[in-house]
Design brief:
- This protein has 236 residues and is an alpha/beta fold.
- 14% of the residues lie in helices and 31% in strands.
- The strands form three sheets. A seven-stranded mixed β-sheet has the order 6-5-4-3-2-1-15, with no helix packed on it. A six-stranded mixed β-sheet has the order 7-8-9-10-12-14, covered by helices on one side. A two-stranded parallel sheet has the order 11-13.
- Strand 7 and strand 8 form a beta hairpin.
- Helix 1 runs parallel beside helix 2.
């Protein structure tokens, strides 16, 4: 079983039997993490709504803590953080990495940084970061064509892969195009549970998603988030 806690915005904690995975934390309360479980901390990129330097305090845990982040992220000097080389993985787009039985693959974001595909003990987790189909009405058509092409190229690399839990943006600032990225992702993968994210606290977006004709094929696999700190136990 997998337990998922929604922290805020794009931040999630995923718990398995012997490991925890923290993604893009910047606000909300991090639950107490079992000190007997190893912890993997992921940062997709350095935007303020995806990264908070306080995550490095988790390195003080007794059990192993691994940090997986783009190489442009600067580790703060204060508080003083001691990270051995095997506990720090600096990523680039299109990379493959491994730490303590956790296999990590990165995709190139259509904004900054990377998206993560994580495989651990037979389970797969996908966290998009800011990899999304960013279609802005105020932009010129060549820009939006480029965004569509770049997004689809990255998602096509997943090649109808089976994914147990995915975290995908549905940014309401995109207007009517807010769900294009989610829709393409769900049609190109075999995802069992998808968590729409990056919705800036506008929880009514889940009502919009439920009313979209395009989501009918996978609506039962979309997880509705109602509040920060909400916990989900995934059975499928």
């Amino acid at each position: 079983m997998m337990r998922v806690t929604y922290l805020s915005h794009s931040g999630f904690l995923v718990e398995m039997d012997d490991a925890c995975f923290l993604f893009d934390y910047y606000k909300g309360e991090i639950p107490d993490i079992d000190r007997e479980k190893q912890l993997f901390v992921f940062v997709s990129h350095g935007h303020y709504d995806h990264y908070k330097k306080e995550i490095f305090r988790l390195a003080e845990r007794e059990k192993e803590t691994y940090y997986i982040l783009p190489e442009e992220i600067k580790i703060p000097k204060e508080p003083k953080v001691k990270l051995s080389e095997d506990r720090l993985i600096l990523t680039v787009p299109g990379g493959e990495y491994e730490a303590a039985g956790c296999k990590i693959r990165t995709l190139r974001s259509t904004d900054e940084g990377v998206a993560y595909l994580v495989s651990y003990r037979g389970k797969r987790i996908y966290h998009a970061g800011d990899l999304n189909w960013w279609h802005w009405e105020e932009e010129e058509e060549p820009f939006n064509r480029m965004m569509r092409r770049n997004y689809q190229r990255e998602i096509d690399k997943l090649d109808y892969m089976e994914i147990d839990a995915a975290f995908v943006p549905v940014d309401p600032r995109l207007g009517e195009q807010y769900c294009w990225g989610l829709d393409y992702f769900m049609r190109q993968t075999r995802t069992k549970n998808v968590f729409p994210m990056h919705f800036w606290g506008e929880y009514e977006i889940f009502d919009r998603l439920d009313s979209e004709a395009c989501t009918e094929a996978y609506r039962e696999r979309m997880i509705r988030i109602e509040r920060e700190g909400q916990i989900f136990d995934l059975e499928r």
